[in-house]
């Protein structure tokens, strides 16, 4: 809401300066977002009367004018404006005046740079000044003709004074609960309350009970939808002459961001800006039988609004109609058919209260948000309808020569519910955390229009004013008191702490541990958007069977689904960095993924990583270690060894449909206690090609929820270190090339050798004299007993027995 | 025999000169001290020595033996030292060459900021509870006292999902989720991602993160003064002890009274600059006393209980603290940006 201080000054006089006003408004909940200091964009321009106008002897379109600027002198001025006429009041720039906008708007806009106006000889006639257009005075873009000042303007007065310049305009953010502040008077009321200053009322025309005028001028109103229109007032006026509004009125509209149109329409807007009550003026001659019907629109009907657009209406829309046709969409926009035009001589002014939710729905559906609908939506004064009409009537009489033609019609089929709030004064103190004198509480509430009655020493009854629909219970009144007093006056205190220990948050602890482990392994944490393209979800399906979760109203097709995996986002981040000359990218992310299951939309936590390019450096002269399958597997082994019970994790070759994005020969499922908890592998070359990733890239993704379940089983039984030495025996087995090394180890573990303490793989060899079908797998077995030193003989016996078992089981032979 | 011994001594010590190499030393050792060396030979011939001289000769043999052994030990030690200093010189490294580069990563600046914030709240006795991103209308709007026609419930602001679900637009759903299943006293912070229909731009992102905090206790025990105390305490811990904190009245559907909280502009320290639009203040979070309707929605009697709540954006707070002004930086994952946080800079 734009607030010109010159306008505010009509209702309240402040001793505080502008800065203090802004500060107090801001902390009281009316945030001043911008302050505009308006200065005249001209110097030495005076009001003047055009005494005589003669045709220029040498030019048809020019006039030579005799201009009387009173004490500022009398001049001969050549003027090209079509609207110049004898007797009009205009703005005269004398020789020496400065116009920031320049003649014809060609200037720089900076008054310091504007050259002084010089006398000019135009087609042989000397001109001693210039009659200015609004454009030249930087008042508007209008350059159709010269500015016409009201007829009662005295000549010889500085134009800036007539225009109320300099002025300051505040731009105030109005929160949705404060519809009452969407007007100059409403803000003045607030300022008066904040500064304890007296508030002056605007001038309302006294309406005679039975004004002159015939029965013919009367208007009738029928409200068929009281649930959407609890109150409707109408005032017929006649004898109107439509013309442009005076400059001061148009100025004020423009300062508040509206444009002038004609006097009647401008007055309705002016009163709306002043009092917050939207008004509408109908051309009375267009209303059949002079009967206004307030009703719901017919289903799927068409109506052409003022802006010439045809709108489709339905039964939830409220319209203003006559007996035959719709005249306006209530509270939103008037219609073409009853618009005030240059030929209008009689009008009906409408002032109503429409239900906020209904106006909001209609305006939103039609995409028609007007100054009027905005105010109805936020809730206007429930009782301000008649006063607004009286104010408008006053102005119409003054500025459009009209008179009230028939009595005011004011229907209220549904009076406002009475609000009485019982306030416990002790409760106010408790809520604020500070004891205020009862008198102060009452004074603050009265300052914003609340009627306060003392019920007993501890309780008051508060009746909020009609313009504050937001005050409904004690908490609302507590806010008023706190706000007006200033929140800075409330002490800041720390609550008393309970000494209890907070319950552990295991999910958070796990996420933190994961983050520490992965960063310790060289991965940098990334953060990617949870929105992906359908293609991403198709290529990177969820670890668990679920359908993609589709957003009903996405921003774009590229962001139309919720991610089923963190991998597309991480690969996007990888590509972003590769396009910026990165050669090593190792990223991870911990986040949520989404999917649709039969029971509805689901979210679950994941951790994923991508690794590309050089992983570790062996120092000067050494080749760097390139990231590959075993890098990422190594990272996972390191991390999972810190999270899951020892020996619980297994890596098994992947089955191809499981993860189409992984290289089928270089990928593994990760299982814990037999349950699938994640995948690790190299990106499928076809996928790399599609994503334009040039070199092998390795990935993993783990289900954090399952990780949490299994990591909760992590416990340690601490044993002392062994007291007797271990004995190591190595053996190399020749097996089929296709046999996984893991199977060899498994065969040793499952063999019958209780003394076997560990078995580790230390070499895999292919080629040589082994042929194409075979490979050699070398393992080291360690044997130990807890209660004695083993003899060579018994170790040899056990080892040979075990190797025989394994060889038989795997069809392996011993490598000599 | 004495003369013979003197000769052995002279010859041996002569040969064990400072320049003697290892072979020469070994030769002397074997010849003089060896099992069939010269001194052993003398000892074997002791029978031939007259008894009176025997002690004298014996002493002399020992003396020579000790002397030669000592000299050999001295020379060996000397050689070893020489060899060591030679090898030390050869093993000299250029210590200005870089060390092995150990892989090391670090967390995202938003994580660093969030963890720092949560750490402060935990130290103040708040419990961290994470709640869901997929929400229903009731927990995201209705229970938080949003009127049925509130614009936030419209398609242009909120992402909707099938089955009447939506993506939460704030972490305030945490208030409802926690209060529904627990009873006061509560002191909770809920971090998490939120979603609003804004294009990713310098100013906004369709996904962002917030921390919601709230405290509920018996009415009369908890007041607006505590809201001010807790928030100011947090902001000074996070932004520094000299941070100015200002509360100004505002409006949120789920709090009454409501207050926006400003901190003194981090750039100009309150003097007024372009960033703070000359006001000297920067908006940092929204707060207020929990609205009675919110308490009613979770089945708490507003006459019995009271509480305060606050919420702040992690991205926005990070941008302010880091002095950068592009939201997209957080989601692009440009390593040249992320690398600046390798020492946890966003949490310092």
Report on the structure:
The complex is a heterodimer of chains A (816) and B (348). With 816 residues, chain A is of the alpha+beta class. Chain A is 25% helix and 29% strand. In chain A, the strands form 10 sheets. In chain A, strands 26, 30, 31, 32, 33, 34, 35 and 36 form an 8-stranded mixed beta sheet that branches. In chain A, strands 5-4-3-6-9 form a 5-stranded antiparallel beta sheet. In chain A, strand 7 and strand 8 (125-127) form a beta hairpin. In chain A, helix 5 (247-255) crosses helix 6 (263-275), helix 6 packs antiparallel against helix 9 (385-400) and helix 7 packs antiparallel against helix 8. Chain A is elongated. The termini of chain A are far apart. In chain B, the strands form 2 sheets. In chain B, strands 1-5-6-10-9-8-7 form a 7-stranded mixed beta sheet, sandwiched between helices. In chain B, strands 2-4-3 form a 3-stranded antiparallel beta sheet. In chain B, strand 3 (160-161) and strand 4 form a beta hairpin. The radius of gyration of chain B is 43 Å and the shape is rod-shaped. The mean pLDDT of chain B is 92. Chains A and B meet through strand 2, helix 7, helix 10, helix 12 and helix 13 of A and helix 5, strand 1, strand 3, strand 5 and strand 6 of B.
Q: Total helix count of chain A?
A: 20
Q: Could you tell me the strand content of chain B as a percent range? A: 15-25%
Structural category of chain A is alpha+beta
Relevant CATH superfamily of the largest domain in chain B: Bira Bifunctional Protein, Domain 2
Q: Which class do the helix and strand fractions of chain B yield?
A: alpha+beta
Q: Order of strands in the sheet with the most strands of chain B?
A: 1-5-6-10-9-8-7
Indicate the topology.
The complex is a heterodimer of chains A (816) and B (348).
Chain A: E1 2-4, H1 5-8, H2 18-27, E2 31-38, E3 42-55, E4 63-68, E5 74-79, E6 89-99, E7 120-122, E8 125-127, E9 129-131, H3 159-162, E10 167-173, H4 184-195, E11 220-223, E12 231-238, H5 247-255, H6 263-275, E13 279-283, E14 291-296, E15 301-304, E16 310-313, E17 318-321, E18 326-329, E19 333-334, E20 347-353, H7 356-366, H8 371-378, H9 385-400, E21 403-404, E22 409-411, E23 421-424, H10 425-432, H11 438-447, E24 451-456, E25 459-463, H12 474-485, H13 506-520, E26 524-525, E27 531-532, H14 534-539, E28 549-550, E29 561-562, H15 567-578, E30 584-597, E31 600-616, E32 625-626, H16 629-641, E33 649-653, E34 662-672, E35 675-683, H17 685-690, E36 697-703, H18 704-711, E37 727-736, H19 741-750, E38 756-766, E39 774-783, H20 792-810, E40 813-814
Parallel strand pairs in A: 11-14, 26-30
Antiparallel strand pairs in A: 1-10, 2-10, 3-4, 3-6, 4-5, 6-9, 7-8, 12-20, 12-21, 12-22, 13-20, 14-17, 15-16, 17-18, 18-19, 23-25, 24-25, 27-29, 28-29, 30-31, 31-32, 31-36, 33-34, 34-35, 35-36, 37-39, 37-40, 38-39
Helix pairs in contact in A: 5-6, 6-9, 7-8
Chain B: H1 2-15, H2 22-33, H3 38-44, H4 54-90, H5 109-123, E1 127-128, E2 134-136, H6 137-140, E3 160-161, E4 165-167, H7 173-181, E5 186-195, E6 207-218, H8 224-239, E7 245-252, E8 255-264, E9 281-290, H9 292-297, E10 305-313, H10 314-322, H11 329-332, H12 335-338
Parallel strand pairs in B: 1-5
Antiparallel strand pairs in B: 2-4, 3-4, 5-6, 6-10, 7-8, 8-9, 9-10
